[in-house]
Amino acid sequence: MLTEERIETIIKPEQEGQRIDKGLFLDESQLSRSRLQKLLKDGRVLVNEKPVKPSYRLRAGDAVQVRIPQRQPVSIEPEDIPLDVLYEDAYLLIVNKPQGMVVHPAPGHEKHTLVNAVLAHCQGNLSGINGELRPGIVHRIDRDTSGALAICKDDRTHRDLAQQLKEHTIHRIYHGIVKGNIKEEEGCIDAPIGRHPTDRKRMSIHSKRGRRAVTHYRVLKRFGDYTYVQCRLETGRTHQIRVHMASISHPLAGDPVYNRDKSNPFHLAGQALHARELGFRHPQTDKYLEVSAPFPESFTNLLNKLEHK
Fold it and tell me: For this structure, is 261 an active site residue?
């Protein structure tokens, strides 16, 4: 007989009026939005003990119960792909994801993803909260962004780390090389991010349904036509740093989506962005854990070229 996990919550006053498929669990919480929508469609989300539709508007005091069915065997094939492991224990795996590797299977990228690699490395022992296509995945970075990424081996660890993401207490530092000479030594970009009004493959600060996004940046070195920056994420929206830096007219070098000037003099394979530092409270030991991901060769090569330009 199949068992199921149940997550229960009481709706707070500030959540009142939001659609349940958008206001219940955000991208950084226990469930991805797509996973929640499927559970709603299957009648596994109850409000005051009754199934509701995705369009249901939340009310303060509503008792919400999400019933997550027992995880079925993952259909993704494990692949023996070498991993650059930064940290590992019985609960967590932190890897230095290479540029060009997709995090999880998706149309057009069914194989050779990070998930394929960690399934083999962890022998299938991964959290199942985000569904069978994203086992262990609690946060993501873009295909052409390299750097530190945490993988959860069990659901309890996943839920705790997801809550830290939601509360913006995770330390996330990125290093990037942007076009142009940023005038300020440091700054903060506080602009909501949502799906682009006309191009569904892009994100934008001009979306009608944008969610608050905050990026703190600091100049590390100037190269005239380019600037080497450090970015600290306060929130974690899709393409956040790429969208925010482009919004102040300093897109990331090599970014094929948000760089209006399509010239690529250094022949970069993608945006020059690296998740350098990742730190958080370990969900099991309660001690602070921080790792630093070494730069890929492409990033250091670009810095060297700019130094001697």
Answer: no
